[in-house]
């Protein structure tokens, strides 16, 4: 039996570029469209993010998936914590990914999942925008939140589009300034820092919300026709009116999107149901659905995040590591048995 | 940040005895009864066990949990595969367990989960039987299936009870004979090998079904008053009549038990619902419910298996490993940073 390949985050950074992740996510969205990916609804372990008990400010999501085009199965266990984790200066996201050979069930790899999570989240947006705005090459971007996710969103978009201009708002001005400094190489035109949230939404092709905000700060009246809004936060960043008035709703995973994040409340009120979802990103990826006349439409697109994307990227990282003889094999059975890889 | 402690199966075998597991499972059932454990319904990734696609004969279950009395969170990803796995002579169960510090979200341990799965499954039955048959010290046991699970069930029961007699049936006579040979030290009286399935159910206190059978082989008419039946298989081992005629239904996790295993079909037909479940094992553990006059009752008890039990045992294994300086630390962040354990 093959041993289990352990990969740490620094190795994964070497093994996987944003260009790779954008391609992998594209193929896996197509796989989902072709119904070759199996991706059950993620299961939440609430550690006190919203539950009254236990008393920690965080959650963990279990996200198993099988990817047809790569013939791999795995799970990501990932979450976010504030509280003591934040006090210690640790990043919000914590994550681990496990891969198995789906034929035999042996564990082929265990790796850190935080870096992959950040990268694939950016790549999901970039690919989804590509499918919605078929043929468009250059874009203007509005960004709420200039943290880690804001960076990976920008990096991913720059792989797929020519970013003409990016306007960013962060509640901390200095965070926005640091963002501008480190992200300028990804943007052809200028990065502007908005003084008011409303400025971000003017005259852009895509609005990306990557904040921890619990307020519905993005107002319906700010959003122009021709704009795709990506509310990526855990909480509702967009006011109900925009969701109800949008021309199209696009999601990555119907069940997940109705029960978590931006659509949750309206779904519970019965105002947004399965019937209001016009397309999945997978359906747009393979072209069985398209967003007609997208230059005049207001679209809300929710890539809430699927384990499929993480498993797909992790499989690539493992294969690359094997090619480059990186990582560390570990024998979780402890029998010392090493046969030829199956 | 503390590194992640890796433990292999051989180390876990050294670190954890059945006596330990029986005690841990007892405490964790009490924790569940006291509502201090958080254990969402497990999420299935079907790799072809029942689904038409993908084409592998197996499944994986994601089982996250938080355990209050130990203040630990974790996930077990575990499944069973036949097909190529079986051809290779590998055990049915494949599993890995991840533990995090729930306050900070850092991964404190990654370990094999197969051994813990087998042991805790036995310990669940033994403890549940103890709660149902309050005060009874010596028992007669009927066992269907003489494989790995049959052994760990017997080992666990022998920690809690004096086993006066055990009668075992296996479709392979030689498997039953091997079982008898290796298990005699756990049984005060004799181990008898049954020629016919019906013999197992006569005049026993508990009937344990640990088979891969898809037939409802256990007949209602075989089961005497005073017997607790444990259908532990993935499929339905007990005929509908017994379930419908039983005096009491006891489960470990209401939602899970209605949607998987022995109650699934009857639940889908609306014949067994939440209202038919008389108690959870946790409620019996803390004594808020009891099975009155158990010597004259026919009880069906379904410990379908909760991640809580695995996480509880895994936490103990990690703590023991630290005490004994076993296991191997691994830095999944790859930053080489090692601070004092938090």
Automatic annotation (TrEMBL), chains A, B:
Annotated InterPro entries: NAD(P)-bd_dom_sf (IPR036291), ODC_Mu_crystall (IPR003462), ODC_N (IPR023401)
Stated name of the protein: Ornithine cyclodeaminase family protein
């Amino acid at each position: 039996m093959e041993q289990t390949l352990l990969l740490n985050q620094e190795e994964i950074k070497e093994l996987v570029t944003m260009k790779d992740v954008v391609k992998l996510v594209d193929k896996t969205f197509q796989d989902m469209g072709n119904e070759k990916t199996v991706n059950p609804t993620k299961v939440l372990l609430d550690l006190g993010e919203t539950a009254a008990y236990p008393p920690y400010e965080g959650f963990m999501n279990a996200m198993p998936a099988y990817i047809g085009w790569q013939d791999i199965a795995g799970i990501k266990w990932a979450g976010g914590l504030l509280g003591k984790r934040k006090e210690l200066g640790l990043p919000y996201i914590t994550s681990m990914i496990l891969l198995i050979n789906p034929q035999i069930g042996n564990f082929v790899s265990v790796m850190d999942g935080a870096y992959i999570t950040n990268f694939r989240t950016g790549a999901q947006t970039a690919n989804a925008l590509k499918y919605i705005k078929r043929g468009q090459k250059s874009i203007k971007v509005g960004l709420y939140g200039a943290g880690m996710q804001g960076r990976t969103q920008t990096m991913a978009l720059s792989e797929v589009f020519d970013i003409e201009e990016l306007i960013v708002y962060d509640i901390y001005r200095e965070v926005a300034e640091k963002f501008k400094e480190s992200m300028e190489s990804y943007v052809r035109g200028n990065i502007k820092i908005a003084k008011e949230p409303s400025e971000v939404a003017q005259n852009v092709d895509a609005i990306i919300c990557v904040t921890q905000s619990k307020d519905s700060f993005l107002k319906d009246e700010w959003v122009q026709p021709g704009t795709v809004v990506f509310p990526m936060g855990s909480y509702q960043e967009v006011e109900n009116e925009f969701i109800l008035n949008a021309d199209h709703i696009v999601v990555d995973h119907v069940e997940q999107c109705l029960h978590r994040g931006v659509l949750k409340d309206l779904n519970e009120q019965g105002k947004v149901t399965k019937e209001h979802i016009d397309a999945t990103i997978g359906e747009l990826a393979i072209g069985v659905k398209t967003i007609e006349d997208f230059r005049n439409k207001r679209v809300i697109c929710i890539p809430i995040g699927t384990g499929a994307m993480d498993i797909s990227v992790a499989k690539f990282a493992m294969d690359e590591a094997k090619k480059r003889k990186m990582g560390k094999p570990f024998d979780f059975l402890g029998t010392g048995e090493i046969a030829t890889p199956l």
